[in-house]
DNA sequence: CCATAAAAATAGTGATCCCTATTAAATCAT
DNA sequence: ATGATTTAATAGGGATCACTATTTTTATGG
């Protein structure tokens, strides 16, 4: 990650990561269809051609903003999930971390991915497929952790880990929706505590 | 509900309820921001002035289409919930009915209300408040049923019925999101069966 | 200083957005 | 038939949509 050597030509006024951060925040708050390229260029302080030369298109920018945001969160969250904590405890901390992310002060409510682009115009079907794939990947990550829990004897051998992962995925999506509707952090965590009572295994192995 | 007596003037080409049904289906599939007035007028087979004289504005039409759709479902669903079945059994049938609604053949996926207008442009904030209020009302209906269950001794007296209602509300929202992403009916019902294991009371009193 | 390179700014493009002023058509009452 | 009444159709308005051809600015290399 060494600083780029100064190249020829006019220097950039906008750092790429700063631009992605601004874009991610707008898309997060207003959604893909609710955010215009004029909103984006205005918030970044650039003119339209600069946006297109830096990021390609509105859809390309959305994809890059999602990748950028996910990269920032994924390290901490995968550490929680892949730690040597019992699966139940790891899951609890993982869900609490998501609840925190859904209710950050001075940030948009909810999750940028969990409830994004569920309904959409036909022309945005490819954007919807992208967010759906990200949600499916998150569920598969949960399932893999649950499979490990079965191997470790923390869950009954007959556990349907796929459905269990989709159940907690539904909790994550429901929390995002309720955060968008104004739910506070403690309210989401009380909800998590109920969801954790559906855990099929012995607790704290 | 007697048929209206033929009045003076040119007869309507489009029945109001037929128009609302067409509008509801479009809004359901594409969302509020993803559906244009041109989409609506084309699907209804009318010209723009007819849409505005019949329904007022795009936002008014959305509100009327939501009311129209909810009215059709609410009778059956409130019968399920307010029946004399034990609360647990009523809840199970209620959630199964919602799962069926999320995965109807030849209908858009998911629920028209549960995951609608979560992210939105600033100019559509009033539309978002409307759908949020409908979601909150559904949660309060669940809470009221749970409160009755406490009175009937089907739930422990110290049960936090508000959080329990928001938990099952999250399940409903998560199911809608996953249905939008392609989940089938049986997958949603397996998810419900796990959610029901979080029920705090004695089953089948 | 000059040529080259790279990015920014200007000034738009055609398409689509939600909505409406006006005119034409179709019915009923007399 | 005529006038009154109600709805439909025509034709577009002003704003915004995502995007871009062209020109101008600012840097480096020689």
From TrEMBL, chains A, B:
Q: Which residues form the HTH tetR-type domain?
A: 13-73
| Name the record gives this protein | TetR/AcrR family transcriptional regulator
Gene3D superfamilies linked:
Homeodomain-like, Tetracycline Repressor, domain 2
Protein's UniProt keywords contain DNA-binding: yes
* Source taxonomy: Bacteria, Pseudomonadati, Pseudomonadota, Alphaproteobacteria, Hyphomicrobiales
Annotated region of DNA binding: 36-55
Instruction: Kindly name one Pfam family recorded for this protein.
Output: TetR_N
Q: Which UniProt keywords apply?
A: DNA-binding, Transcription, Transcription regulation
- What is the native source organism of this protein? Rhizobium croatiense
Superkingdom is Bacteria
């Amino acid at each position: 990650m060494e600083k780029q050597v100064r190249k020829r030509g006019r220097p950039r006024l906008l750092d790429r990561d700063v631009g992605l951060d601004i874009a991610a925040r707008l898309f997060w708050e207003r959604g893909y269809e609710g955010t215009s390229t004029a909103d984006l260029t205005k918030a970044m302080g650039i003119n339209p051609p600069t946006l297109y030369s830096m990021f390609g298109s509105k859809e390309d920018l959305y994809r890059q903003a999602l990748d950028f945001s996910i990269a920032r969160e994924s390290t901490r969250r995968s550490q929680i999930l892949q730690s040597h904590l019992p699966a139940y405890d790891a899951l609890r901390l993982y869900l609490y971390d998501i609840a925190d992310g859904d209710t950050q002060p001075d940030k948009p409510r909810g999750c940028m991915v969990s409830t994004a682009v569920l309904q959409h115009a036909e022309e945005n079907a490819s954007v919807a497929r992208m967010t759906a794939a990200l949600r499916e990947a998150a569920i598969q990550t949960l399932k893999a952790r649950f499979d490990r829990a079965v191997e470790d004897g923390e869950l009954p051998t007959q556990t349907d880990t796929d459905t269990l992962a989709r159940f907690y995925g539904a909790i994550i999506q429901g929390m995002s929706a309720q955060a968008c509707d104004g739910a506070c952090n403690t309210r989401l965590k009380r909800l998590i505590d109920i969801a954790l009572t559906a855990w099929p295994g012995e607790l704290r192995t």
